């Protein structure tokens, strides 16, 4: 049980790709009125592609190429460009009550905390105000978000390393990318755990609340599993209870 007034930390670690898309949505949908919110960290074990809510998958990607490459495609809830995600990206996803403040101001606070954490790690990164963390103009990661259900949601990622080839091969209109990575920019080797701990410290400081380790509650786990099945194109009725994670104990 976390302390009253604390923000929940849900650390998924390296996990199934669909879970990196389901837990934050379930947390937002079931966010209690008195919650201080949650921050969720994860790294997708299987690579996948995402695109902004304003885009269509068939126009953004060559879906035959995606299938050939074994890359699932997910439409994000918010705006932004096409992205390639794999285990070499550290995802951080904020789910906050609307009482925390205006969306734009909250977004900028999270961006500022992430930027200050990166500078502490020796990476001179800035937030460009248009959805990207950059180092001398090269993209180091992204940030997007908006209102979802009764929550404010911010979705961020930072590149530990980055492979531009899958996105280029899957895109209908591939564009040259100016990308850098934490492992290229940091003056010393950085583990995902070190980056995460530094981010948490700066997030806590910026938002003025402790961030404490927690686990998803049963209703959140159930709803997340339903979302995962939707992303995988499988209905819960097609699976036995022990494979859905929804069996009663």
Brief write-up:
The chain has 249 residues and is of the alpha/beta class. Helices cover 35% and strands 26% of the residues.
Structure characterization notes:
This protein has nine helices and eleven strands. It has 249 residues and is an alpha/beta fold. The chain has one domain: 2-Layer Sandwich (BirA Bifunctional Protein, domain 2), CATH 3.30.930.10. Strands 7-8-9-10-6-2-1-11 form an eight-stranded mixed sheet, sandwiched between helices. Strands 4-3-5 form a three-stranded mixed sheet, with no helix packed on it. The protein starts with 6 loop residues before the first strand and ends in a 5-residue tail after the last helix.
Number of helices: 9
| C-alpha geometry | globular
Largest sheet at a glance? 8 strands, mixed
Query: Into how many domains do the coordinates divide?
Result: 1
Any idea what the CATH superfamily is called? Bira Bifunctional Protein, Domain 2
Structural class: alpha/beta
Low-confidence stretches: 235-249
CATH C-level category: Alpha Beta
Number of strands: 11
Order of helices and strands: EHEEHHEEEHEEEEHHHEHH
Helical fraction equals: 25-40%
Alpha carbon gap, first and last residue:
21 Å
Question: What is the C-alpha radius of gyration, as a whole number of Å?
Answer: 18 Å
Q: What is the overall pLDDT average?
A: 92
Strand content: 25-35%
- The CATH level-2 architecture is identified as 2-Layer Sandwich
Using the coordinates shown, work out and report the CATH topology: BirA Bifunctional Protein, domain 2
Strand order of the largest sheet: 7-8-9-10-6-2-1-11
């Amino acid at each position: 049980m976390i302390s009253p007034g604390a923000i929940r930390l849900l650390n998924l670690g390296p996990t199934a790709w669909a879970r990196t898309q389901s837990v934050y949505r379930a947390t937002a949908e079931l966010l209690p009125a008195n919650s201080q919110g949650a921050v969720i960290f994860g790294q997708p074990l299987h690579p996948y592609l995402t695109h902004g809510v304003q885009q269509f998958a068939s126009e953004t990607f060559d879906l035959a190429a995606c299938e050939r490459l074994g890359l699932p495609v997910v439409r994000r809830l918010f705006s932004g460009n096409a992205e390639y995600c794999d285990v070499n990206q550290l995802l951080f996803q904020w789910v906050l009550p609307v009482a925390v403040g205006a969306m734009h101001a909250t977004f900028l606070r999270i961006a500022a905390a992430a930027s200050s954490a990166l500078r502490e790690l020796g990476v001179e990164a800035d937030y460009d105000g248009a959805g990207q963390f950059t180092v001398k103009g090269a993209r180091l990661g992204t940030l997007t978000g908006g209102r979802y259900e009764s929550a404010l949601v911010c979705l961020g990622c930072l590149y530990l390393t980055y492979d531009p080839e899958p996105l280029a091969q899957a895109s209908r209109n591939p564009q040259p990318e100016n990308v850098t990575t934490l492992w290229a920019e940091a003056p010393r080797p950085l583990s995902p755990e070190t980056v995460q701990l530094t981010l948490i410290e700066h997030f806590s400081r910026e938002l003025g609340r402790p961030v404490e380790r927690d686990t998803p509650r049963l209703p959140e786990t159930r709803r997340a599993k339903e979302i995962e099945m939707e992303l995988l194109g499988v209905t819960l009725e097609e699976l036995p209870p022990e494979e859905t994670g929804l069996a009663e104990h």
